[in-house]
Amino acid sequence: MKDFIAGLPKCELHLHIEGTLEPELKFELAGRNGLELPYSSVEEMRAAYAFDSLPSFLKVYYEGMQVLRTEPDFYDLAMAYLRKAAEQNVRYAEIFFDPQAHTSRGVPFDVVIRGLRRALMDAEARLGVRAQLIMCFLRDFQAEYAMATLLESLPYKEWIAGVGLDSDEKGNPPVKFAAVYERARQEGYLLTMHCDVDQENSIEHIRQAVEDIGVNRVDHGVNILEDQRLVEVVLERGMGLTCCPISNGYVTDSMKSEAIRKLMDLGVRVTINSDDPAYFAGYVGENLEALQGALQLTHEELAQLERNAFEITWLPRHLKDAYL
Ligand code: ADE
Ligand code: ZN
User: Per residue in 269-313, pLDDT tens?
Assistant: First the structure.
């Protein structure tokens, strides 16, 4: 089974590039930029990755990315992930980035996107991994800052497939960003947003994302099972959910494998992804292995999860078909 999963052509749709920053690279970038880290070794840093909720994870995540300062830093970050992706037979990835996590501490938007874009181009040419960027807004910042970020992104529109929404969900519902998402749609961006697992008001947030905002897909979204009517809406529209089993186990009490099984059985386009693999100790291959172990998935079911992912990518139809 391990070999089957390793050989399966994969598609990753829920991956925060800042969440792929491994401790080793963190130390390298800190050295390059003359920064002190509050840890004396990689082991000590990893030992501090003890989260039990979304906010406790986010604190470490934002702290960790402060070593990213220059265009080459963002290039190296993305290139390291894309090398890992190639090793795991990921053929295509849609990669989230959090520009406001950088612009809010003085790193210009163009430094971030140019570094990431250059890595994506090199990875396609050298590693045969295709990827696109999804720009996420931080939902715990004001909607006005998201709108300003959206406007700042417009000169780079050709480099960005769509927009997402992440960070701390508590008190930050989808409708807070209704105007931003409307403008993003008008600009031609595709739309997704996080509805994290077991948050306060998860099901109402899913309803707002699907019905009020009209997203193309939902990141996480497993709580949709609480409302059969919404499950039917998602089935009718053929929408996908980007689920992240190992991540679920860090920010809630379980991987939510039974919920994922139910969604698969209902015919929802469930996909399996790694979220923040440097922090949750598992890339997409390990996520598939963990879920397979929990649910005794067959070869055919594993292949179906990857077909679901390729099917809901934001690629033009002819490129999508080339993977299916
Ligand atoms: N930012 C990075 N990873 C995230 C996650 N899993 N949920 C919300 N915001 C995030
Ligand atoms: Zn996420």
Answer: 999 999 999 999 999 999 999 999 999 999 999 999 999 999 999
Instruction: Indicate which ligand has the atom closest to the C-alpha of 101.
Output: 1
CA of 273 to the centre of ligand 2 (A): 9
Interaxial angle between packed helices 299-311 and 257-266, expressed in degrees from 0 to 180 and rounded to the nearest 10:
70
Q: How far is the CA of 235 from the centre of ligand 2 (A)?
A: 22
Length of the chain: 324
Tokens of 21: 């920053």
Per the structure block, which two tokens stand in for 192?
């997704």
Q: How far apart are CA 80 and CA 74, in angstroms?
A: 10
Which residue is it, tokens 């923040």?
Answer: 276
- Tell me if 299 is assigned to a ligand binding site: no
pLDDT tens per residue, range 110-127: 999 999 999 999 999 999
SS3 133: strand
Long-range contacts of 53-60 (CB under 8 A, 24+ apart): 53/251, 54/168, 54/169, 54/196, 54/199, 54/251, 55/168, 55/170, 57/250, 57/251, 57/276, 57/279, 58/167, 58/168, 60/279
How far is it, in rounded angstroms, from Cα 225 to Cα 257? 13
Residues touching ligand 1 (Cβ under 6 Å) are 16, 19, 54, 61, 166-167, 194, 196, 247, 275-276
Q: How far is CA 267 from the centre of its chain?
A: 22
pLDDT at 51 over 90: no
Rounded CA-CA distance 88/102 in Å is: 29
ipTM above 0.85 for this complex: yes
Domains of the chain as residue ranges with CATH = 2-323 (3.20.20.140)
Separation of CA 55 from chain center = 17
Cα–Cα distance measured from residue 111 to residue 308, given in angstroms and rounded to the nearest whole number: 34
Mutation test residue for ligand 1: of 53, 275, 279, the one with most atoms within 8 Å of CB: 275
